[in-house]
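To illustrate the input format used throughout this study, we show a single complete record. The first block contains the structure-token representation of the backbone; no residue identities are included at this stage. The design step must infer an amino acid for every position from geometry alone.
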């Protein structure tokens, strides 16, 4: 399949691409749904792929939902999905701490209840979920009580993020041997109607600045997310396709892991964005150029129904 990068996927090329892969990784928001609505045709695409023997997985940087919460949402939207096919950063973070870091101790968690659930599911205790209100003076903040069992600070999306959480994380991270892990570096979360809110990357950068340390991240485009899928299901990179709507996370993950890549235009990035990277001459930006693009993953339907 020797075609130039950023090729529109249509006609016979769709079948060629699908025949060349056994497994397909899909991002979620902007790819198979937007908000609480499935992208038209997306459930049929996913379900037909599985009927035709393809292994389908879902990889998302959103750390506010557990695998079960994602599977329940997808089932309600008409997708044929099981919990073990979902790889979110809440789950991948727990797996990273358990398998790579072999953490022995608690986590100070700047994150959600879903992250707490995923950590506890692999036997890791946490402290920190929920509000942490400020009191006292700066000298009190510098001597804030710390749990001696905490051996890692983890930063995900936290609607209760505050100065005291930032300060407490910093105090833990000044201790020798304390691990520092972030779910992802997405700085903005796009919403419907062209709106956006601050993303996890903003919180993570704040903690990194305060602690004067850099976190290890587990979400896209870091290869660990693909490693999670590959190690559990025996997925081979050269027979795998990554489908996403963001060049800097989804497509770059695919490039980093040697996967084929497909950009769908139902979310964040545009063909113009991809072409700008392609023309830049910058090796780092070349990794954000997809092999193919489609208007929507529904464009795969004719090949699957034929």
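Output of the design step:
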């Amino acid at each position: 399949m020797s075609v130039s990068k950023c090729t529109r996927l249509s006609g016979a090329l769709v079948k060629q691409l699908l025949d060349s892969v056994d497994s397909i990784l899909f991002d979620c928001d902007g790819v198979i749904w937007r908000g609480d609505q499935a992208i038209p045709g997306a459930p049929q695409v996913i379900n037909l792929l599985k009927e035709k023997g393809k292994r389908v997985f879902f990889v998302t940087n959103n750390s506010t939902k557990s695998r079960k919460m994602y599977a329940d949402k997808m089932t309600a939207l008409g997708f044929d999905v099981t919990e073990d096919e979902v790889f979110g950063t809440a789950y991948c973070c727990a797996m990273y701490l358990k398998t790579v870091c072999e953490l022995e101790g608690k986590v100070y968690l700047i994150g959600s209840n879903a992250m707490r659930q995923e950590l506890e599911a692999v036997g890791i205790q946490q402290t920190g979920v929920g509000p942490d209100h400020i009191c006292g003076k700066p000298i009190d903040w510098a001597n804030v009580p710390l749990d001696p069992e905490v051996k890692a600070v983890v930063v995900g999306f936290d609607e209760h993020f505050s100065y005291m959480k930032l300060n407490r994380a910093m105090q833990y991270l000044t201790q020798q041997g304390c691990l520092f892990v972030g779910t992802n570096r997405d700085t903005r979360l796009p919403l419907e109607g062209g709106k956006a809110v601050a993303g996890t990357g903003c919180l993570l950068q704040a903690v990194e600045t305060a602690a004067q340390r850099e976190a290890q991240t587990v979400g896209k485009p870091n290869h660990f997310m693909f490693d999670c899928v590959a190690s559990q299901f025996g997925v081979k990179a050269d027979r795998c396709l990554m489908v996403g709507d963001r060049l800097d996370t989804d497509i770059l993950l695919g490039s980093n892991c040697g996967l084929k890549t497909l950009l769908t235009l139902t979310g964040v990035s545009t063909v113009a964005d991809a072409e700008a990277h392609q023309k830049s001459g910058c090796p780092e930006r070349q990794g954000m150029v997809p092999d193919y693009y489609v208007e929507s993953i529904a464009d795969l339907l004719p090949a699957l129904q034929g």
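Structural context for interpreting the output: The chain has two domains: 7-61+221-305, 91-217. The longest helix spans residues 89-100.
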